[in-house]
Amino acid sequence: MASVTVKLYGILEKYNKEKGRKVAIDLPGDSNAGELMSALNIPKERVTIVLVNGEPADQTHSLKEGDEVELFPPVSGG
Amino acid sequence: MLKEYTGKIAFVDLSRRENKVIQLDESICSDFLGGYGIGAKLLYDFQKPNTDPLNPKSMIGFITGPLTGTPAVTGSRFMVVGKSPLTRTWSDSNCGGYFGPTLKMAGYDGILVQGQADKPVYVLVEEGKVTINDAKHIWGENTTGVEKILKRRLGSDVQIASIGKAGEKQVLIANIIHDRRRAAGRSGFGALMGSKNLKAIVVKGKMAVPLAHPEKILHLRRKAIVDMKKGKGLFEAFQKGSAAYTPSGISTGDAPTKNWSGVGREDFAQGADWSEEEIYKYRTKKYTCWECPIVCGGSVRMETEEYGVLESHQPEYETMAAFSSNCLNDSLESLIKVNHICNDYGVDTISAGGLVAFIINCFEEGFITKEDTDGLEMRWGNHQAIVKMTEKIVNREGIGDILAGGFEKAIKHIGKKAEQYAIHVRGEALPMHDPRFEPAMALIYKVNASPAKHLPASQYTGPPGLNLRAPQFGTEREKQKERARGVKILESLNNSMSSSGMCVRGYLSFDVQFLPAFLGAVTGKDWTLEELTQVGERIANVRQAFNIRDGVNFIKEYFPSLALGSPPLESGPLKGVRIDLELMMDEYFKEMDWDRESGKPSRKKLQELGLEDIATDLYG
Questions:
Q1: Residue B275 in contact with partner chain A when CB distance is under 8 A
Q2: Is the ipTM of this structure higher than 0.95?
Q3: Cα B157 to Cα B29, B72, B150, B153, distances in angstroms
Q4: How far is it, in rounded angstroms, from Cα B168 to Cα B165?
Q5: Fewer Cβ atoms within 10 A, N terminus or C terminus of chain A?
């Protein structure tokens, strides 16, 4: 089991059952970022950037206890 | 003649106080569509080479596209075209709201203005008739005042594109404001209008805009709206308003921080943590452009001890980042205030923010002191000083008068040591999208005919349904190369999309096939995406030829090294990233068939695009 904190930005916030950007989640051991998205019911195509502990990562990145995962939707600033 | 076009451009000569009609034929409409496509062709043909932008002989155009004023989703845009007083290059600036559709309904596809009035005037286009009118009662008013006075005098149904006091004073970053809050923002076109004593263009009309297949376009509209809501594009994000993107930009590094030298999540963590509730704390209601279902605009009402009661508009992302992360300023109230100042006085928020960040950097480095800044303590995060400095720029007061002349003038005044902190291309401040996050941005900022713009190729993401075959993100060398190659198609399609009068937010929200479909239903001419890509490429080549003919060559010119990761950031998600702009230019110029040393389109390319006259001009 790995407890991780997730921050969901922009339109991804709506996938957080708790209000706001942050959500804590327990995952089976050896889970990766893609499996995290599935656990939160986030369609993978809606995520363009993944940061784990502030470092760029991708969906295959293995997560461990205490990791902070940030998920970002496509760029929409103008 | 294709349907939907009126086939007429009003040509106004302010010096002679005359106007006439330029007829558009079907070939110019098919070959260049509208907007800055037709604008580039007209100015290339009618404006003499090397005309100084502030000379009375220069021209400024306000041109709609074939989708402007139709039921096509987001068909609301018009484009201002001309030679920029700021960059002294070709430029175009895109604006939404209601002006474009009303210009069409007033009987014209566009207006071209040349000359200089002997005293302030405004041009009125009403139901086919064009008049030049005395503007003494509005000269000296800011844009909010202009709207009030002219609507009272001419009717609440007029639509106005005007300059504020900044344009009158020819502040080089002055813009043109429509409906108090929509802007033809960049390139300093407000100064161009000011130089002509042209205070405003006013349009009024309800003339029918004939469509080729009215039932079909309504059907397409309904389908496009359904498609938008499926979520393959950015509709949902745009609906929130672009300001909501700010925390993402800061956290990933897309939003420049501390005048491009910092790391957002470390140096401006408070901005990375902004919630949507905080960002939209003062928003009272949302507003939209003509017939647009996205509804991305927002009105605000703010009541604070510092600023009193202020009823104004929600800043967009660019404004937010330019005055927050890039200045390390976390006062959301001050962002609303500077946005209001810029809209009212008519000044580009991206440029104003860039200049303010620059002057803070110079102050913090000790190049200038409070004596130079009229007592203002220009420190990172000092929001009071940031607001006051913005007021100085728009009023040309004290050091604001220097900054109003742009980066090049500021560097001359402060000294060459300041150049490293000037983040611009030919005077145009870089927008709030860092090339260290998306390398293709560096390419577009550097080589697009209208430099330092973030939208010419919508390069973060193609529209839904476009199979670009360029890698998504990544700063590895091979990815930089491939993304540069992809810019050609993105830019070409973007040129067609913009010149058609569609908004980029619509384009990025529904399937790309709606663009040719809407055009076909509106004009009666069938289009394919390939044809539109070629039209867009043709537009790119005319814009480029305009610059080449004037001796402009960006390739060897200054590009801020910080934005290329020289030196690289030492921490954060963009740690160590270096952008190989030369590599990307190699790929891009090969794709475009433009000379690598000069940017000149090849004779073969010009002939292939049917631009024989331009080929003769450039090659003999």
A1: yes
A2: yes
A3: 29, 22, 10, 11
A4: 5
A5: N
DSSP-derived secondary structure for B384-437: HHHHHHHHHHHHT-THHHHHTT-HHHHHHHH-GGGGGG--EETTEEP-S--TTT
Could you tell me the residue ranges of all domains in chain A? 2-72
pLDDT over 80 (residue B436):
yes
Q: pLDDT tier at B471 (50, 70, 90 boundaries)? A: low
Structure tokens at B154: 């001419």
Per-residue model confidence as pLDDT tens digits over B384-393: 999 999 999 9
Q: Where are any strands of DSSP class E within B98-156?
A: 110-114, 121-126, 129-134
- On whether any CB of chain A is under 8 Å from the CB of B254, the answer is yes
Structure tokens at B225: 């709206």
CATH architecture of B440-619: Orthogonal Bundle (1.10)
B318 touches chain A (CB under 8 A): yes
CATH code of domain B241-422: 1.10.569.10
Question: In sequence order, which residues have a C-beta less than 8 Å from that of residue B14 and are 6 or more positions away?
Answer: B56, B113, B114, B115, B116, B117, B121, B132, B196, B197, B198
Name the closest residue on chain B to residue A46, using Cα atoms: B232
Burial of B381 (0-12, 13-18, 19+ CB in 10 A): middle
CB B492, CB B59: distance < 8 Å: no
Which phi and psi (to 5°) does residue B68 adopt?
Answer: -65, 130
Domain ranges for chain B? 8-204, 241-422, 440-619
Task: Kindly give, in sequence order, each residue whose CB lies less than 8 Å from that of residue A19, ignoring residues fewer than 6 positions away.
Answer: none
CB–CB of B251 and A10 under 8 A? no
Q: Which fold has domain A2-72?
A: Ubiquitin-like (UB roll) (3.10.20)
| CATH number for the domain running over B8-204 | 3.60.9.10
Distance CA B25, CA B1 (A): 7
Contact B265 A54 (CB under 8 A): yes
Q: What is the mean pLDDT of chain A?
A: 93
Contacts of A73 in chain B (CB under 8 A): 237, 248
User: Distance from CA of residue B456 to its chain's centroid?
Assistant: 9
Q: Report chain A residues touching chain B, CB-CB < 8 A.
A: 7, 9-11, 13, 20-21, 46, 48-49, 51, 54-56, 70, 72-78
Distance from CA of A11 to the nearest CA of B (A): 6
- Whether residues B251 and A46 touch (CB distance < 8 A) is answered with no
Predicted pLDDT of residue B192: 98
